[in-house]
Amino acid sequence: MHLIQGSIDTSTVLLTSTLGAIAIGVACGGVRRQISGKQMPALLGMTGLVFLAQMLNFSTGMGFSCHLIGASLLAMMFGPFAAMLSMASILTLQLCFLSDGSWHTLGANFLSMGVAAPWVAYALLRWTRGRSQGEPNPRALAGPAGPALAALAAFGSVMAAALSIYLMVESPLWGMVSMAIVWGLMEAAIATLACILLVPRETRSYTSVESSSRIALRPLILIACVALCLLPYSSQVPDGLEYQLARLATETK
């Protein structure tokens, strides 16, 4: 869900770049209070997994493909500030090494996938579990309701990202909403599976934040290996946002 060169005007580029830089500064200050040093290996591992998973596109059979955004998982497991920094790193690496997006739209892409998406996921987590049980760590996803909660937050994060992009580009609302619904359902399914595989059952018995911030390492490595094996079979169909922008360009002509 990357905006490409020329998809937003100059004033929007300046505004989103400025807001993105401010958001990074806020995240750097907030993450110090949200995670500890012992959580960094798990955060780096999840960041790497999301980076890898975003390279794998799935065809929807509707003329466009989807890929995991992953901001909701990062936000629910480590908090919105850590998710912001992880998504900023992912988007920058994708731009530098994979040419996804552009420097002009990096701020806009970060605001949609790195700010709107994780914060909406985190807000849904706090709303559904309550303030005392909605702290950002895997323990919040433990229990019978964990997978359903992960699915709800993932769906909401995609809708938030799509809505934020709609506000930046002149795209038909229904086209963006319909694309986001399909994308959100795919994201919810992946988030549910990730919650089942990555959240150890024993986290429900933990009482400390540091202890409850563990994720299952072996399934994470297994998922990464499976994603690597599937990369050659990634769909070459344009993703949902590219599809909508192409339709908009055609209609404009």
What does this 3D model show about the protein?
The protein is an all-alpha fold and 253 residues long. Helices cover 66% and strands 2% of the residues. It has a two-stranded antiparallel sheet with strand order 1-2. Strand 1 and strand 2 form a beta hairpin. Helix 1 crosses helix 4 and helix 2 packs parallel to helix 8. The chain is globular and about 50 Å long. The chain starts with 9 loop residues before the first helix and ends with a helix. About 4% of the residues have low confidence.
Outline:
The protein has 253 residues and is an all-alpha fold. It has 9 helices and 2 strands, in the order ααββααααααα.
Helix and strand topology:
Blueprint: H1 10-34, H2 40-53, E1 58-59, E2 65-66, H3 71-78, H4 80-98, H5 106-129, H6 146-168, H7 173-198, H8 217-230, H9 240-252
Antiparallel strand pairs: 1-2
Helix pairs in contact: 1-4, 1-5, 2-4, 2-8, 3-4, 3-5, 3-6, 4-5, 5-6, 6-7
